[in-house]
Model the fold of this input.
Amino acid sequence: MRDYFFFKELQPVDLPLDYLYLNPDHPGVLLTNWKYIPDSKIDDIVIQKEVQKLLEDGGLVAKIIENMKIYGFLSMNRVIVRKFADEKYVVLDDNPRICAAKFLLRKYEENHASVAEEVIQSFGAIPCLLYTGTETDVSFLMNTVSQYFAIK
Done:
């Protein structure tokens, strides 16, 4: 097994929420009948809505939404992303938290009274780590790294 120093391939960057796209190829989203989504289709509105629905139906996003309504977007952990187009980044780790933020932003746009202005302001610059490596299956690599730290 080769040494793999993942941290060397991550650069801190703050990104607007609308530059971030949910990852349809993340292990937490994949279904048995799901097909690989190429970079050219990640930002497709139908695919993004389908990923959003899968995440929201899981229940975890609802808990995050309730916490965000109180505390806003906390930057305790950076979201790991990979650039796939100009001003477009796919989430490699933390799909549920980005999904929750996008959900609250939609609710706010529908009815400003439904979400506190301070919560929306917390979405202004999302602290991220930009993956600059060359691993092709980086979503699965991220899942392995996340599981490692959850166990330790």
Observations:
- Confidence is low (pLDDT under 50) at residues 143-152.
- The radius of gyration is 15 Å.
- Residues 7-151 form one domain.
